[in-house]
Amino acid sequence: MFKELDPLLHSQLRLAVMSILLSVDEADFVYLKEKTQATAGNLSVQIDKLNEAGYIEVEKSFVGKKPRTTCRITPVGKQAFEDYVNALKGYIGI
User: What is the pTM of this model?
Assistant: First the structure.
């Protein structure tokens, strides 16, 4: 029997955001937007979903007069990602 894949991580954009955040200490919104090639609106919605689930932390601040949104993966997010990858391995028999 296959383990269920986490529907929150099964989205292409959310999975991309989580993958990026695993490889850096933190990433700002502009960096994530450039790396994922997502629209600002779609990325914002997906970041909110990951934040609400506790998978990432979002910090909003200002640099001068410009707003800055910074994201970091949480321990809960790291575990969810690891579980997702292990479930995928089960699907492909690794």
Answer: 0.92
